[in-house]
Design brief:
The structure holds 2 protein chains of 2 kinds. By secondary structure, chain A is an alpha/beta fold. Chain A is built from 17 helices and 21 strands. By secondary structure, chain B is of the alpha/beta class. Classes of the chains: A alpha/beta, B alpha/beta.
Chain lengths: 507, 283
């Protein structure tokens, strides 16, 4: 594949008429006030309906990635704490939550949905403060969707017998859930809502860098008067997750995170008879045909890779452009990324916030260096970055081929790799040439081609003329090494139920 | 007295009947005196290549067509019922009546699954009510290439129970037939070959579980496993490298003949993937 020298692409950009606002249209700061966000300085564990200090008496710092300031101290749960949480969950499952009338279970879950809506400002502020994502996203996407997941699943609690005719559904039992740092509250909702609606009790482990919203969700569970032990929240690093995975009294484990950790969990649960669902990494192909509405496609591409700083497992990180429109599309895209406002996550005008942690920033930087070293052309926004905190510019690599590391490995950051194709068949071949299979995007004006292409994508979610849409009623999950099991929709309930006529065992 | 012509028991891979590339044979525990081709790990890898090559063709057929082909298989089993009874009896201590019952149950099982492929979308897919101007629907598609291992007994019904639900869902399969009683499992190849089942869709190997199952579990181009038996931690762990879908059919022997245990959606569901499509609605 021919590479576009840096000079050539910048020349093309200059030759194109552009809107130049100069100094006349500068965004004034529009910071979200944190004045009455009830953040605590120190958080303990939420076990059996009570706040308990970790038995190891250790707390660790939770850092605001946009300022590198410590915002709270969070408990490091050890083996004994995890054990206490699982025991509480077992008692709650067998004595309270399992036997409870489904109608009443539904009402608790409805209550949680309503309380999230009522306390949405607090949750959105904490999410941006703790994780670095723009307040606009926390406020308009993460928190409303989290409430939506509880509301949607609440209604299933007393209708499970209708969802699976002929198979008497029953709860799996006690479920361990391990969630990632990219959508802390939303992932907690994706995991908790179906588990609770289906009659399971839970031990939830949030990601170490983003525990705060899960702990405020625990306050909401208290406010909802959820019976003690139904949900237990143990914070900590990988050791806490390891203790949960290895706990002998779990009936199921649900994990969202990297493929490497997912594989190690699958290995350690093998032969145990425990259920497992995995939602792992991705390297989604985002395919643009020459008849696509280009400006809309550019917005979709931007949303696909720069939403949430690219910390999205289903991010559209491999752009496949039909050869004839490659130059025109790249021009538009590079002009567009100049307009992405990167900075203070708590500013209401910010498009892209901070990278979640210094470790993640290092991973992104290492892969971008690899891309440059392999001869790909790097285009970056010239935006000004804050002095403190973890930041990365919106970045686009052109001249990428399938064998390059930046086309194969999940970067999990705001870095797009652009490749080309000529025919639909070649687009299919390149899109599926990955071990992952979480999502794909297709932009074309031709309906029959959308359906033909979508049918051939080996991916669990296919966005057509749109990207990165999520809904509680819409099943989400991967093919191949992106994991197994679905979250959302009727299909997502299966992950939290057993059936009287199912004779097979996972393992 | 006429001297009968004896059959050589060979593998069934890619629609052909090869011996093992290793040249090895074995005398099954339940059929001493018969030399059966003993598949090597290389034979298994070849069979996986054949199954992968057949995957998109089989998955791309309509559910109606896959159903008709499975129904044709049921017709062939019915036609060859007598010889299958003989082959069951040649490698087990089953009575004539018990062997006849097993063949009848096998026909029933294949017929049940023959009616399934064109209903999977309606049973497992959905149109989803999302909160926005989108048309959103979920379809099911095969997981891909799967490996299956049959129970020792019943050797015909068990082989069909761990493979037909998978191919009904559009997967292609490499099946290790009963280790102790492989004759009738391998004879199944003769029926597949005349049932319009495309070559490579269902491949049959005979040999040792201990030798072949670990290779099935660790092969990177296999998407899932369905093994008869008790969950094995080592095989499960090996399958994690490519995040395989793994299920164990840990049934007591008497349940292997109960069709209400074998003919349920739960045998197909773990090996199909839900795919959800979004498209905006706009004037």
């Amino acid at each position: 594949m021919t590479q576009l020298p840096e000079k050539q692409s910048s020349t093309r950009e200059e030759s194109r008429p552009q809107l130049v606002f100069g100094e006349r249209w500068v965004y004034e700061p529009a910071p979200q006030s944190l004045a009455d966000v009830p953040a605590r300085e120190k958080y303990d564990l939420f076990i059996n309906g009570k706040w308990a200090a970790p038995k190891g008496r250790k707390h660790f710092d939770s850092v605001n990635p946009a300022t590198e300031q410590v915002i709270a101290r969070v408990a490091q749960a050890g083996k004994a704490d995890v054990d206490a949480a699982v025991k509480a969950a077992r008692v709650a499952q067998t004595k309270v939550w399992g036997p409870m009338a489904p109608r009443d279970r539904a009402r608790y879950v409805f209550r949680i949905a309503r309380l999230i809506q009522e306390r949405s400002r607090e949750l959105a502020c904490l999410e941006s403060l703790d994780g670095g994502k723009p307040i606009r996203e926390s406020r308009d996407v993460d928190v409303p969707l989290a409430a939506g997941h509880f509301f949607y699943h609440a209604g299933w609690a007393d209708k499970l017998h209708l969802a699976f005719p002929g198979s008497k559904p029953s709860p799996v039992g006690v479920v361990g859930q391990i969630i990632p740092w990219n959508f802390p509250l939303l992932m907690a909702a994706w995991k908790l809502a179906p588990a609770l609606a289906c009659g399971n009790t839970v031990v939830l482990k949030p990601a170490e860098t983003t525990s705060l919203t899960a702990l405020h969700l625990a306050q909401i569970l208290e406010q909802a008067e959820l019976p003690p032990g139904v949900v237990n929240i143990v914070t900590g690093d990988g050791r806490t997750g390891g203790a949960l995975v290895e706990h002998p009294d779990l009936d199921k484990l649900a994990f969202t995170g990297s493929t490497a950790v997912g594989q190690s969990i699958q290995r350690s649960l093998a032969g145990s008879g425990k259920d497992l669902t995995l939602e792992l990494g991705g390297k989604a192909a985002h395919i643009v045909f020459d008849d696509a509405a280009l400006d809309q496609a550019v917005e979709g591409i931007v949303k696909g890779i720069f939403f949430n700083q690219g910390h999205v497992c289903c991010a559209g990180s491999r752009l496949l452009v039909q050869e004839s429109i490659h130059d025109a599309l790249l021009d538009k895209l590079l002009a567009r990324i100049e307009r992405i406002r990167v900075g203070d996550p708590l500013d209401k005008n910010t498009d892209m916030g901070a990278i979640n942690s210094s470790e993640q920033l290092q991973r992104i930087e290492a892969l971008v260096e690899a891309g440059v070293a392999e001869g790909c052309t790097l285009h970056q926004s010239t935006c000004t970055l804050p002095n403190k905190g973890y930041w990365f510019r919106p970045s686009v690599f052109s001249g990428v081929s399938l064998s390059h590391r930046i086309a194969r490995e999940e970067i999990f950051g705001p870095v797009l790799s652009v490749m080309t194709f000529r025919t639909p068949a070649e687009a299919v071949e390149k899109a599926n040439n990955t071990a992952y299979g979480l999502s794909a995007g297709i932009w074309t004006d031709k309906g029959s081609r959308i359906l033909w292409m979508a049918e051939r994508m080996r991916a669990g979610v296919v966005w057509n003329n749109t990207f990165n849409q999520f809904d509680p009623a819409s099943p989400f999950g991967g093919f191949k090494e992106s994991g197994f099991g679905r979250e959302g929709g009727r299909q997502g309930l299966e992950a939290y139920l057993r059936f009287h006529d199912d004779t097979l065992v996972q393992g | 007295m006429r001297v009968p012509v004896k059959k050589t028991y060979k593998l069934f891979v890619g629609g052909k009947f090869p011996r093992s590339e290793s040249g090895r044979t074995f005398e099954p525990a339940d059929a001493p005196g018969t030399n059966v081709a003993r598949a090597s790990r290389k034979d298994l890898r070849d069979a996986i290549v054949a199954a992968r090559a057949a995957q998109s063709g089989w998955a791309g057929r309509t559910g109606y067509n896959r159903g008709q082909i499975l129904y044709r298989l049921a017709e062939m089993i019915e036609t060859h019922a007598a010889s299958l009874v003989d082959e069951i009896r040649a490698c087990s201590r089953k009575s004539q009546a018990a062997a006849e019952r097993e063949v009848e149950a096998s026909i029933d099982l294949v017929t049940w699954y023959a009616g399934l492929p064109d209903k999977l979308q309606q049973l497992l897919g959905a149109q989803n009510e999302v909160s926005g101007p989108f048309f959103n629907f979920s379809t099911v598609e095969p997981s891909g290439v799967l490996c299956a291992a049959a129970p020792d007994a019943p050797s015909l019904l068990g082989a069909l129970a761990v493979s037909v639900p998978l191919i009904a869902g559009g997967n292609t399969v490499v099946l290790l037939v009963s280790e102790a009683s492989p004759l009738v499992g391998l004879a199944l190849g003769e029926l597949l070959a005349v049932s319009d089942v495309p070559g490579g869709t269902l491949n049959l190997l005979a040999g040792q579980r201990d030798e072949l199952l670990p290779e099935m579990a660790k092969h990177r181009d296999v998407n899932g496993l369905l093994f008869a038996g008790t969950p094995d931690p080592e095989l499960g762990a090996a399958s994690a490298d490519s995040v395989k879908r793994v299920r164990w059919a840990d049934l007591p022997e008497r349940d292997w003949s109960k069709l209400d245990k074998l003919c349920t959606l739960h045998w197909a569901r773990p090996f199909v993937e839900v795919k959800t499509l979004w498209h905006p609605k706009a004037p």
